[in-house]
Write a structure and sequence with these properties.
With 126 residues, the chain is mainly β. The chain contains no helices and eleven strands. The strands form two sheets. Strands 2, 4, 5, 6, 9, 10 and 11 form a seven-stranded mixed beta sheet that branches. The relative contact order is 0.31. The mean pLDDT is 94.
């Protein structure tokens, strides 16, 4: 098990940028694939992006491709989400999640994850 704490959310104007961080505590962070999910009011939780445990594979939702970038620093037990060219439709609570030793399409399924952060609010004004 890992404990996850997100930071970096806030209010930004459309076209602006934010960088979210997710600090993990616990053992073997480098053995966990990591993902960012988001959930807007009245909508289902969706996978924004994920990175494999070795960092070699990333995936992105079509809605954020070319604007968002996930990265991880295993030495710091941290995963980042750089969000550029933000749009009002990006407004949501963003959650960090960890999944031990799994890669591939399963990374986009929120039901696969049993390690979640508390979430951080991102609000993009028009």
């Amino acid at each position: 098990q890992v404990q996850l704490v997100e930071s970096g959310g806030g209010l930004v104007q459309a076209g602006g940028s934010l960088r979210l961080s997710c600090q993990a505590s616990g053992r073997a962070f480098s053995s966990y694939s990591m993902a960012w999910f988001r959930q807007a009011p009245g909508k289902e939780r969706e996978c924004v992006t994920a990175v494999s445990y070795w960092g070699g594979t990333t995936s992105y939702a079509d809605s954020v491709k070319g604007r968002f970038t996930i990265s991880r620093d295993n030495a710091k037990n941290t995963v980042y989400l750089q969000m550029n060219s933000l749009k009002p439709e990006d407004t949501a609570v963003y959650y960090c999640a960890a999944l031990f030793g799994v890669t591939g399409t399963r990374l986009s399924d929120p039901y696969e994850y049993d390690n979640w952060g508390q979430g951080t609010q991102v609000t993009v004004s028009s």
